[in-house]
Design brief:
alpha+beta, two-stranded antiparallel ribbon, globular
Length: about 80
Amino acid sequence: LFITHNLALVRSIAQSVVVLRDGTVVEQGPVRQVLEHPADPYTVALMEDVPKLRTTAGVTAEGPPAGRHSAQGHAAGPDAQQ
């Protein structure tokens, strides 16, 4: 049993999910089914509250643009010296 409001975490660690509202089961089933096709309005509202990943200009999967520095002050990005 794991109780959370973090649906991203639920998706990554659970196989099935039960959605409760005021202590009452409103929806349950396989995580993928419930999170990708929510049937209850409360589940839909929870899903709408999940932050969406956004891209930022100049930031890639490899890190900040070449010549930029990381938070530690070291050069970062694909061209940085190791």
